[in-house]
Design brief:
This protein is mainly alpha-helical and 285 residues long. The chain has 2 domains: 86 residues, no CATH class; 152 residues, MetI-like fold, CATH 1.10.3720. The protein contains 15 helices and 2 strands. Strands 1-2 form a two-stranded antiparallel ribbon. Helix 4 packs across helix 8. The mean pLDDT is 86.
């Protein structure tokens, strides 16, 4: 029996509350700043922590573009959000599909050097992105995939982490299921589709959330392979709004774009929270 101590409970709740405040306060600042004008943000030091009256105009300019009160021209955010959404979905679905098939082949097929193939995949986790990014860019450029969705997504689809996680899960599937499927006349792909996929749905959901956020937040790779503004993701769009040197920055529009960029990942996490948590902690294999 676990003894409940009020002192420890209070301390744990205080630590959790402090953690929530540390994470939530910058988000609150961005949300409040997006409701004010740029002059209010600059002139009021420290910035007011109360909502302003410019929320509709700020989000209109941020989402659809146009001229601000200070005369700055703002590019619309919705095309960049569309690029980010397409890239994130293609990267996520591609990673899951390829990882499922590769893990299935490694676990259930017998071929020479099967273990070596798996460790060759796994060892790529030890290679930093900076090591691979130069040769990858050269290949993408040679194939004419700059400023395309293919160039943004295909080099990021392979995932050793997802392959490793699915392999470990497939190893826990009882051999009796394999024998039963074989006795029923099910081929390898029928077994994969009717048995393994339903059993893997919680793991797939957890990886979907993680990989969607990974794909949505990409900055370094799009910075290299895109020179056309029509192919900029929203993260690059936010960076372009921040002027260098002494140039004027519309901080309210910057914060509005940051809030808009947070909405799709937050929505995915909220809608798939149950499956995400279950996929991480479920032990019923």
């Amino acid at each position: 029996m676990i003894e409940r101590r009020s002192g420890l409970t209070l301390i744990s709740h205080l630590v959790l509350l402090a953690g929530v405040l540390i994470v939530a306060f910058p988000v609150y600042i961005a949300l409040i700043a997006s409701t004010q004008t740029s002059m209010e943000i600059i002139q009021n030091v420290p910035m007011s922590l109360l909502p302003g009256n410019n929320v509709i105009e700020t989000y209109r300019v941020a989402l659809f573009g146009g001229e601000t009160a200070a005369g700055s021209h703002i590019a619309p955010a919705w095309p960049m959000m569309w690029v980010s959404l397409v890239s994130a979905l293609v990267i996520t679905i591609g990673k899951i599909a390829i990882s499922l098939l590769s893990a299935f082949a490694i676990v259930y097929f017998r071929f020479p050097f099967r273990g070596t193939v798996f460790w060759m995949i796994f060892v790529t986790l030890m290679l930093p992105v900076e090591v691979r990014i130069g040769p990858t860019y050269d290949v993408v450029s040679s194939l004419g995939m700059l400023n395309t969705y293919a160039g943004l997504t295909i080099p990021l689809i392979a995932s050793a982490t997802a392959t490793f996680l699915f392999r470990q899960f497939f190893l826990t599937v009882p051999d009796e299921l394999v024998e039963a499927a074989r006795m029923d006349g099910a081929g390898p792909m029928r077994f994969f589709w009717d048995v393994l996929l339903p059993l893997s749905r919680t793991s797939i959901a957890a990886l979907f959330v993680i990989q969607f956020i990974y794909g949505w937040n990409q900055y370094l790779w799009p910075l290299l392979v895109t020179t056309n503004e029509d192919m900029y993701p929203v993260v690059m769009g936010i960076k372009r709004l921040i002027s260098a040197g002494e140039a004027y920055t519309e901080w309210n529009v910057v914060m509005a774009n940051a809030v808009l960029a947070m909405l799709p990942p937050a929505l995915v996490v909220i809608l798939m929270q149950k499956w995400f948590v279950k996929g991480l902690v479920d032990s019923e294999k």
